[in-house]
Amino acid sequence: MNLLITSAASATAQLIAGELSGAHTLRLTDLPENASGDIVAHELGHESETDELLAGIDAVINIGYQGQSGSPAHLMDYSTRRMYNLLQAASDAGVKRYINISTLRLYEDHEENLVVTEKWRTDPSAEDVDLLNAHIAEYVCKEFARDRLIQVVNLRLGWPFVGDSSAKPEDTAVISHGMIGAAVQEALVSEELIQWQDIHVQSPIEHQRFNTNTAARLLPGLAGRLSS
Amino acid sequence: MKVLILGGNGMLGPWAVKAMKDRHDILLTDINDPYPEYKGEFQKLSADDIDGVVKAAEGMDVIVNLSVLRPHRQLAFDVNTMGNYAMMLAAREHRIKRVITTGPHFQMVGQQYEEWDHDLNPDMPPAPGTRLYAHTKALGQEICRVFSKRHGIQVLTLLYYNMKHTWNLGGPEATPVYHDDMVPYSTAWQDCGTAVQAAVEVPEERLATKCETFFVLPDLPHAKFNNEKTKRVLGWQPRYHVEALWNKDHRTPPSGLTEAF
Question: What does pTM read for this prediction?
Fold first, then answer.
């Protein structure tokens, strides 16, 4: 598939690109102040340049959490206006699927004993601008899915990201790099998804914090790697 | 009370000022100069200027955000979304307990609702869709909701749709059309203004939660939108019911008083 990955200079995008590069053709993009090397510098404005960025793309992988850094105003602008421009261009270009990489930290204030699933409402912080913007980015995506302009898979990933399975005992929502790559890969190809699809993913560990049964059901290739 | 009004020189601002000017101390702000008739305090300020809004809000009891920009994508996000973000940062900074935000009804009532259902009410989950105006305003409202939940700031959202002059029931962008398929959410400008006043003044104990939304429209027979909460909670009573738009009896009788016999 031809994939566009946004906020490509971010650690999350680099990780995902590394996991997917062997199986897909990647187009990487980021804002001009972040772009270098093979990353296409792009403002994600509302002019035709954004349409050109989406030409020939089958699916978009948007880093909706910690893809950008900067002032609160910059982050809010990115998560709202630029996301809207990107989604509009993607829907106009006939892109089939938009994978928004979000975070399970949107539930971090819920007690760990609660069986939090995709049916639970998120509870973002107003103080943590990254979390507030992750929530707002989800909101923008959802409305495009609601209007049936594009299918959106909202992947809420655990934290922290670790390179192997050596998580600390207190990291009950940990996710491995390999699990992230596999989840995105499966979200690209799954045929079980509805127009707006929340999916929670974290690595299987003792005292695992989040329920991942939806991921196991909808992302069959991931099922054997998740706890049940 | 000391009331900061953002975007106060648009269409709604003068009516809100008229309703409140003898009851509260108003600091009017806008990117445009005020109408010549306005005699109060004024400051040139864009609603999306975070530092400027925070500074202007110092010492205020209430912030009212009437700012709106519709057609231009950059400006719509700047004003409709970022403006509310700036307002909430200011409210948090100065521990302001109440903010009033305004917008179009379809920031909550998207097409899925409006084309299918009746008795639509302001406690429904927002479903604005992707139309620029609705979407950007809805994002602003969602930012307000998050700040309200986290900081206990009272957020009162007033939703409007079609505003009418009382003298001919025309609107700002259209000539009046009588006895046709009217917009079943039409409100006289005067009543739009008094709703802002009611939201500023409503006692806290009448609000069920810290974050409440109200549909501002008179009693209309279509039963498409429900204004019961607005009247009950805010104590707002519309003076005008735009009846000539929906009641054929309001046609001028051809024969004077003889219809009585």
Answer: 0.92
